[in-house]
């Protein structure tokens, strides 16, 4: 019989590069939001689910065709006397760096949050034609 292990996107189940399982286990608590990246009408669209996170606590930046999404999710309240059987709802900081598949005009990007989904629209740069440089020969 084969034992199946349920895939967890936040934990790879392996030791880290130095062989310390405790560091690998600490990755379970890390949060890196999943993203969808696609093209629509000349724009790159990046969508990520950030349900329960205040959009005002999310920072978005673009530099050198790399999109960075970072922010913080805070616990609203926690009751210490609860007898938890399972506690998976997390809080804390998150960070995601996404290399974009094309050159973009980051200063023209826009973002909107609706129903827990953050949608970022980034216009692609027009293809730059290579400039031909003629050589002037001196005699």
UniProtKB/TrEMBL annotation:
Pfam family, one: HSP20
UniProt xrefs under PROSITE patterns: SHSP
Domain spans labelled SHSP: 26-138
Family according to the record: Belongs to the small heat shock protein (HSP20) family.
Name the record gives this protein: SHSP domain-containing protein
Organism: Candidatus Falkowbacteria bacterium RIFOXYA2_FULL_47_9
